[in-house]
């Protein structure tokens, strides 16, 4: 009997890595533009320098590994790492801080494990945590909105000139964490630039990243499970431990959703297909775990914004989540785990 060989009727997606990375970069542009509105060209300089450093470190390591440099640079994955790092680091960060963060992200967070697709940790968040732990003063020196001049920002970035009085201030999350017995109304009355839910710059930047993330969902770059899990868990945790507007309050749910790097983390960090869980339920649980850890570290930990630490901790849990949330095998009533002892 002649059996014709035909292809299976499987759906094939033509979204290659390069196209996906391009869309991620495009979706981050609104957040970058809003950040530049508040902090001048500092965020743009961050992104450009981090992207340049990332491409340089990637090329150097590929040269040492005797791999084709152009082939790997064309997937734009290292460019996404540079963009995300530039957006996460304080505007007008010193150039050497950007260099250290990017170098550690690319060399130790990505290439040390074999390159794209083999890294267990999110490279951008690994680089961010290294400089946060090593240089806490520089990482907590955020400029005040509309306060830094172009020349002053360049001097701080390339010459190490300290910020002038009034050019920098504590972030809204840091102010809440170090609250000394004031009610929230009293605390925010003394905070320059507080908006409806959080600081004006923070809530508008988060809104811009939210819009970019929704566009990525519309383009089916990733599924809704991880972002919804993280934002839902953060909302529930902050609702349970809110405490009203008293001096012991940890902030309202909407305050936490639109403060710090919440939306950047929800739509651009935890959706990394390599270092997060791969199964549908696993991605949902991954997001929930990140949301819970973010609130715990923000409220009772030592750092006001906790996206990076939470993501790295959940990266460790991703293989376990995938193991226990494997989808049902085709043709079986239940997913088979381990070895089938029948018929061995």
Automatic annotation (TrEMBL):
GO cellular component: plasma membrane
Keywords: Cell inner membrane, Cell membrane, Electron transport, Flavoprotein, FMN, Membrane, Phosphoprotein, Translocase, Transmembrane, Transmembrane helix, Transport
Subcellular location: Cell inner membrane
Origin superkingdom: Bacteria
EC number: 7.-.-.-
Subunit structure: The complex is composed of six subunits: RnfA, RnfB, RnfC, RnfD, RnfE and RnfG.
Protein name: Ion-translocating oxidoreductase complex subunit D
Organism listed in the record: Thiopseudomonas denitrificans
